[in-house]
What does this fold into?
Amino acid sequence: MTGANSLPAAWAPQPRDQSLQENEIHVWAAPLEQPALSAAPMLRALSSDERSHAERFYFPQDRRRYVIAHGFLRAVLARYLRVDPVDVLMRYLPSGKPELAPEWSGERLHFNLSHSHELALCAVGRGRSLGVDVEWIRAGLAVEGIAERLFAPREAAALRILPRSYQTEAFFTCWTLKEAYVKARGAGLQTPLNQFEVALTPGQLTALLFDATDQRAASRWSLQSLDVGGDYAAALAVEGRGWRLQRWVWTGQEYR
It folds into this structure.
């Protein structure tokens, strides 16, 4: 697997000190199969609900990846809060989206986590709602059929006319943009994906084209695909415009 362990050069090693300006969005990547990472110290940093959730995984590998992904999230947030990862307190909205506990509200930190197969991403900003999504690109999916059922009609039509060799990548490009947007809105992952439309083709300028539930949404939200290399697709959705993206690779040093 190449995507999780050979991130493109745009992803810089994590800095010694961390600051986050108002006009910045930071996206962190964590390869979940780094040999030096141990799940045990991260498990101790998780909440009781998160530990219970981890125990429900049947396969040990899935359990380990869940623990590392959530330990990664707490370590990233701890850098901005200047605390130990175990002291990061969170709560979950009815939609399932996490946010910092009220005692941290003055920091105005917004964040989102996504993980798939061997890779996790975490996005962090100040005063802006945001969402991030990463998906392991699995060959052999009946992407046309899935798009017909779940995507907006013009997205499904755009996918059909692409050469077969591009359809899977285009499907996951579209899927991650849509999932990132839904997560940024905090409306819950049961939001119908056919109620809004995004640019579809890989390499095309990414954008929210329309949202049937919000006529102003296209001007209020910024979408961007993220190059994480290998067999993965990823995307970021951010409220507003005029922000600058920085990309970091997490090493897990907080738990060593």
About this structure: The chain has seven helices and twelve strands. The chain has a mean pLDDT of 90. The CA atoms of residues 177 and 235 lie 5 Å apart. Helices lie at 39-45, 48-55, 60-81, 143-150, 153-160, 164-185, 217-220.
